[in-house]
Amino acid sequence: MSSTVVQPLAKEFEFGVYTFGDLLADPVSKQKRSPARRLQDIIAAAKLADEVGLDVFGLGEHHKPDFAISSPPVVLAAIAQVTQRIKLTSMTTVLSILDPVRVFEDYATVDLLSAGRAEIVAGRGAKNSLDAYDLFGCDLASYEALFDEKIDLLLQCVENENVTWEGQFRSGLTNAAIVPRPLQKELPVWLGMGGTLESAVRAGKLGRGALFALLTGDPARLQSMAEAYRQAGLQAGHNASRLPIAVASHGCIASEPGQAWREFSRYYENYVGRFQPKINEGIPHIAPAKVTAPQEGLAVGTPEQIAAKILFQHELIGHNRFILQVDIGELPFENVATTIKLLATEVAPIVRREIARRKSKGMEEVSTY
User: Fold this and answer.
1) What DSSP element (H or E) covers 270?
2) How many Cα atoms within 13 Å fall on the side-chain side of residue 299?
3) SS3 for 361?
4) Which 3 state secondary structure label does DSSP give 196?
5) Quick one: DSSP state of residue 359?
6) Is 323 helix (H, G, I), strand (E, B) or coil?
7) What pLDDT score was predicted for residue 238?
8) Residue ranges of the chain with per-residue pLDDT less than 70
9) Which segments constitute the Luciferase-like domain (predicted)?
10) E strand or H helix at 256, and its extent?
11) How far is it, in rounded angstroms, from Cα 328 to Cα 251?
12) Minimal CA–CA distance to 334: which of 247, 259, 273?
């Protein structure tokens, strides 16, 4: 790809989609896509997301037969060749089981191949992926210590071309050259988290973006995390511009009221029934009106309903990015494509206009005072 690709302009609020590449039998047709077909569909979704103007495309990481993606940077490198502007990120890199130097090398390479569009979201691994610790020879008992050490080394690689470093879980480095260097001045690193204040505080102290998972439930629970994150960051001396927040949700968008939940619910049940059984227990009893209400984090509804959800969340936590998992449970590609298009062409304009209006109104009130 040409190195003359125009870089995307920074936006006050970004929109994106992501996938974990789950491999499940379609609950309607009972058919199951091969890993090869699944990967091709993921690349097609990324290409579409780029074409319609979304800002971010992300790939999750799992190391089990239920998923097609175990090496996000390899797939992102393929996506880089068929896209022009969209940012390419992990969702998330399970840093605790990987070598940080290799992680940096992989994503720096993606950055070069994509003309400066790579990002990393680093995390410790969701509860349904902890068996990967055994797979990679890591001690689950060292869950916290592994991540603390490895995020430190990863950030050393991000910030320095030559690294001298000592740790407990791998050999030290003495003035080691860390190559290749990315095209971006600094490879963006976010920290992914579920629901603990400790994770939010860690991200704030490090001055890195925070990605909050809001898969279902009341988004008000994120408010204390956002406050703790920003307070920790400011106390550590980081500028507020270094403290962005992203929200990741499951969802589906359709034009007609009620249509999205009708099309999505059986596939959602297929997904969470396999991977998140506690959520699955309540699905048959969820009323469509509750699903589409702003106070429910699950992002299902019309473009107007999704915009209302995002704006409700923005009032609570002031986030900068919304990223939606759109292909859950073997949801047909045509539904995925519709969601991608509606998110870019209808949801994003509504949200951006309203955020700009609120900001302008706030500035007017300050100047009047």
Assistant:
1) helix 259-275
2) 34
3) helix
4) coil
5) H
6) strand
7) 97
8) 1-10, 126-129, 278-286, 363-369
9) 14-315
10) none
11) 8
12) 259
Q: Which of 14, 10, 12 is nearest to 321 (CA)?
A: 14
Topology (CATH) of 14-368? TIM Barrel (3.20.20)
C-alpha closest to that of 131 among 96, 163, 181, 91: 96
45 DSSP 8-state letter: H
Residues 143-177 as b or e (16 or more Cβ within 10 Å = b): eeebbebbbebbbbbbeeeebebebeeeeebeebe
| Per-residue pLDDT, 103 | 98
Domain segments of the chain: what residues? 14-368
Helix (H, G, I), strand (E, B) or coil at 72: helix
DSSP H or E run through 333: helix 333-342
Q: What is the DSSP letter of 118?
A: B
pTM, to two decimals: 0.93
Nearest to 116 by CA among 17, 203, 39, 1: 1
Say if CB 294 and CB 308 are below 8 A apart: yes
One-letter identity of residue 290:
K
Q: What one-letter code names the amino acid at 137?
A: G
Counted residue by residue, the chain has a size of 369
